[in-house]
């Protein structure tokens, strides 16, 4: 497998003098002594990085470093949702060369349960007035009594 690290280069200073030559023994051994017909270029190199991904409400994220560094090109993040919530969006995202995370934002949505049908001659109640995962229901049966005299 071939690993690549994309770098961003920024040239910060260019100084040139006509008839410059950087060949062979004419180039000075100490860059701080540049003078005359030499070109001095100063630049900085930094890894392509993405902004820190956001943790979804009612969920978590686990970042995986690439070459020991987080939020750089090819690093990944994995999302998980708390119990009672379902994931909307990708579970895995990767930092891309354009400094964005792949895919759309991931969020965790509450799972709501449908109210079950009541039994014949009865009713169904959510005991905690909630229809989310883990809620309990109560069935009530209506029984008719007939008295014979």
From TrEMBL:
Domain annotation Sushi: ranges: 48-110
Signal peptide: none
UniProt keyword Signal, yes or no: yes
Disulfides per UniProt: 81-108
PROSITE patterns referenced in this protein's UniProt entry, alphabetically: SUSHI (PS50923)
Pfam short name (any one): Sushi
Key words of the record: Disulfide bond, Repeat, Signal, Sushi
Listed InterPro entries: SEZ6_CSMD_C4BPB_Regulators, Sushi/SCR/CCP_sf, Sushi_SCR_CCP_dom
Protein name: Sushi domain-containing protein
Organism field: Potamilus streckersoni
Phylogenetic lineage: Eukaryota, Metazoa, Spiralia, Lophotrochozoa, Mollusca
